[in-house]
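Objective 1b: paired records.
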Amino acid sequence: MIKRLARCIREYKWAALLSPLCMIGEVAMEVLIPLVMAQLYDYGIVMQNMTVVITKSVQLVLCALLSLSFGVASAVYASKAGTGFARNLRRDMYYNVQNFSFSNIDKFSTASIVTRLTSDVANLQMTFQMMIRMAIRCPMMLVLALISAWQISPELSLTYLKVMPVLAGALILLTPVVFKIFDRSFKLMDRLNNVVQENIHGIRVVKSYVREAKETEKFTDISGEMAANFSKAEKILALNSPIMMGCVNVCMLTISWVGAQMVVASGNNPVMGLTTGELSSMFTYTTQILSGLMMLSMVFVMMTMSRTPLRRCYEILEEQPDLVTDAEVPVTEVPDGSIDFENVSFRYSATAQHRALKEVTLHIPSGATVGILGSTGSSKSTLVQLIPRLYDVSEGVLRVGGLDVRDYDLKTLRDNVAMVLQKNELFSGTIKENLRWGKPDATDEELIHACQLACADEFIQGFPNKYDTYIEQGGTNVSGGQKQRLCIARALLKKPRILILDDSTSAVDTRTDAMIRRAFREEIPNTTKLIIAQRVSSVQDADMIVVLDNGQVSAVGTHDELMKTSAIYQEVFYSQQKGGVE
């Protein structure tokens, strides 16, 4: 996982390398300062040698300035590398999501993908910046400070070596426990984001049913559970601090007691043994070594917290899109809008036992208007989604224009198949900008003509800004019927060979529905039109009607034929007539 995510550093690798190098320089200067201080005290102040005092003072100032310069440079480079790494990681994840097929998207919830692209990446950015700074600083501080302390007094340096296993043991014991808690917490964060998105998206329903209190309770429960998990983890991690301070105090007391005896025994003579200046340096090294261990424990905490975001981001990056690939020599032109299903079956995954579609055989001539009826869950939408290869058939052959859909260039196929999905989506922007998704270079005249066919021009002209009216995210400032008609107009701009309306006139009145269908017959007679509908009146005048039942074709024919031969069609028709037709 780490190797894969490391590839996201890319053009920021020099910043990622310079940051730890500058950190090494900073640590070296910090470790050198106590040695210079000891020499200043022992050879300058004690021996009253002003030359030594001045020389060592200049050295101290230079060491401090160099330490400051290296520290600032390290922070700048780490910030640049961290933000660049996060940008590349987020971009790689987003690009991979864009390549996901419908089956890939089904594996991840919307809230989970959003959390991974935001919170998880932010956590990894913070961890990465700490890794290229603190993860270098801590071991370097330990090594250099221990070497310097050993040069002063090997006997006193053993104190550090006796304390370090205690801190290491505490980290080893605490880390696995904390990791499990953080893993649960990040899963709860997904649920929390899902609740927030669901509530905001459906705020009108929430208010109309007066469910604000219930939604608040739901949010509070998940938020409280997440807070309890993070609190529990922090309490466990907080044990690091008292253990650390206990070790610091033990070291200080030991060095004070033993060091003072050594200074007295040597008569504060540098040649005979330990001096007062060297003892003060040992105190400084004690702080540096044990603070280095404390920072190392913080690095372990950050690494523990980042294991779950690391895995979650890796899952997005490594999810292999079920790519709908082109043929070796793809066909770049669709001859006509004829559609042929030949013994087609479909499963949503290779391991699924249930077949959503079962041995469908169907011929639809070019330019025909085809109605598709069926109960909820009869796989009406699944059937039409196979045509532009949003999914690929599991068994059998699906042909468009007499050729297997897998032989076409994917862009060519989808440019010639326009779909108005069951869930209509408009994006934030003007009406013109939304319509031009169908044809980026469409003229204003083409936009108006498409909207007239979809019966959308009449309400657009009523807006103060007409086609420059701004559509809010999700189309919340237009009605359901208006949104459907705008989506139909957007599809018509493609001038497709095949037009699929997946229950996309359910929110318009029957009069407007009839006007749209009449415009289709008169204006685009050569386009094959597939209309999935719940109302019989929407497909009654179609050239052929397909009745689906549990993923199978139950009956095919015109309205009059089905009224004689299909019990399912008769039942639907009479139920909608409310007994008004014998």
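Objective 1b, second protein:
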Amino acid sequence: MSGPAVEATATAPTSSGEGEATSDKGLGAGRLGLIGSIVIGVSTIAPAYTLSGALGPTAAAVGEQLPAIFLVGFIPMLLVAVGYRQLNSAMPDAGTTFTWVSRAFGPWVGWMGGWGLLAATVLVLSNLAGIAVDFFYLMLSQVTGNPAIADLTRNVAVNVATCLAFMAIACWVSYRSVETTKIVQYVLVAFQVVVLLWFSVAAFTHVADGSAFAGLAIDPQWFDPFAVDSFSSFAAGVSLSVFIYWGWDVVLTLNEETKGSAVTPGKSATWTMFVIVILYMAVGLAVLAFSGVGTTGLGLGNPDIQGNVFAALAGPVMGPMAILMSFAVLASSAASLQSTIVSPARTMLAMGHYGALPKTYARINPRFQSPGYATVASAVIASVFYAIMRVLSEDVLWDTITALGIMVCFYYGATALACVWFFRKEWRNPRALLTKIVAPGIGGVLLLVFFVQTSVDSMDPAYGSGSHIGGIGLVFVIGIGILALGGVVMVFQWLRRPGFFRGESITRGTSTDAGSPGTLVS
């Protein structure tokens, strides 16, 4: 590419040959509104699936301060979301973290930010598929009354084959454009939210009539984060809390396909966060009051139920309607599996568009105006990763999800600080100082502190499943190892495609610099 470097800002929608509006990357423009974006955001977070797997480990880390940690984890997420909103207003681009960090800190840091997002989404895609498999066979066993069917998930061949089938279906729906995604998500999200609220009301009813396992009254101390016994426990709890909120940024990767691309995605992210924190607090308080944090029976501290809290509690709480919870977690994981593909596909699309990856990743399906090649690539990579990890060990697979928190803190933190640096010359404006510098700055620093603390703690072989390599915890090896692998891949791309790394497609600068639209690098 010759001529002056250009900035990474999205152009206004243009008309395709078929008369439909498209973004500068060829995506279908204006296909999502505010409500549709919020639904997809909630779907990606997958509250039913996430709570089922996170309630136990979080309670084990922080005890009765579970609600406090949910609120503390929400604060840096909200502050970071403020930064995302400001960056999106200035540069509505499907590449989000990759594009924005490249703009603020240069192509090398931007590439690693994009890698962090890609790695996190691939890890969670593999786990979502695995959870969907578990609950699919559990649901079949409950419907048929045959407990043996639930054991099919332990058969590696059956498990992997079913997982690949789910991944293929999710890929097909995402391939057919964001409109198809939206329609599927309305149904699946509504169902899981209704069941979670039903579960919460039923749990509080048991507490009120004295039939709950623990039957605890809500205690103000539950909301005191300073009651957690150590900073390591606090950091572990917040890291898990970050994981349960992770996924809201998918609405930003859809900015070029959203009505009002500079404004609506930011609003959607904020509303998604508030919907989720209210839902989490309702369910968290209900479960804590019903079960307590004891290490036996239905207590949240019991390691036998921590991996799947709802599987243990649905029967005692919901009685004969417990099967609805199995349906809800299956719907939640399946919905998130499908909507989560949206994020890595569009990040790969942007990286191909700006020359940071092969230009084949920038291919758009002309019929559906979706990133067809990148969508299929995301599904294939996640499927291969799951198959390999599942064959090696189920512990390895679960440790990858624990390592997810490391990568999420890394790329969220980097994006938040990119907001601070990009808007730094606007500090004299009081509103800009608060929303573009102070809020995202605090959020970014907090997440990077948690990133460092969790990385250090995860070196302990006892962290996560207890597996280790050479005396170093497997969670650390996976989390930091995958980030290091990103550095290797980045160097390879630099050797193959030096133009991006020379700043030929995305110019480093600030919000006060004049700019022009980003262009495809050939």
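The chain has a mean pLDDT of 85. The chain has one domain: 14-424+432-501.
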